[in-house]
Amino acid sequence: MRSAVPFFSHLPPMDAPIGRRRLLLLGSSLGLGACASAPMPSPHPEALQVAHSAGQEVPGFDLPAGACDCHHHLYDRRYPAHPSATLLPADASLADYQRLQRRLGLQRQVIVQPSTYGTDNRLLLDSLHQAGPSARGVAVLDLDTPDAELQRLHAAGVRGVRFNLSFLVGVRAEIMAPLARRLAPLGWHLQVNGSADLLLQHQAVLGQLACPMVVDHMGQLPQPAGIRHPAFALYRRWLDSGRVWFKLSGPYITSRRADFSDLDELAAALLAQAPERLVWGSDWPHPTLKADEKADDAHLLDLLARWAPAAALRRRILVDNPARLYDFPSA
Predict the structure, then answer these.
(1) Which entry of 283, 297, 320, 327 is annotated as an active-site residue?
(2) Is 283 a catalytic residue?
(3) Digit-coded pLDDT (tens) for 46-74
């Protein structure tokens, strides 16, 4: 078993006070800044069987160049799980995910640190190094993370920090507000995952963050209540603030229908209110689903075509919005 060592461990120390201009220059020097360019995966879908994904079909619509999957995870048993982790999925490698990219015609990706590893971001960072400038990352961090480490994370492609309120592993919800104050100068966001009831429970803190916030999985409004659940009024206020984004992802978490049509009303409401702050994510390898019940990722992507039938709107969600949120070059 090899030792999992982050690629940035050999970089020179960076102890200067943190600043966004310094971070952007540093990222650019490593091929990750706004001016970086490198070949991306092919935009032409291929019918392929992919691990942790049902079916082999390609999406039923043409994806725009630079289309981004803004939410997926990686797992590797060579990297130790946190002792308190309860969600322990099978291995799902970067090579597996790149095969999914080929199947769907996606060219950019955002790797999200799962709760399994707590604040040990080594797998995330090693994967970002392998994936290159077409990838970004969302880490899990504690409040005492040194400034120099934040600089290294930024140079590696990290653009946000996640709090999974349903599986708090290695972090505490109480540090969200003070950590957000440290993220703001970086241009990063705080990503939050949890049931609608959990988000309501933490609304006082989440509504006053110093940095933008990204809400996972459409806010997990339970069905059949949907937009009539009390949390939806909170989501509308958050969207009105202009600082909150939502991910169109994980429909199977709350849907009670095989075709996810009970989420159409929520999707329409989000698209009507803030199309400029919505992104799409596959949630591959679908860690909350059993091995024999994995979602068909082409069908999940086709949901976007149902919810956003106009090609220009889909381009906004798949290309333009991710470029702004994750600091990708313009496609």
Answers:
(1) 283
(2) yes
(3) 999 999 999 999 999 999 999 999 999 99
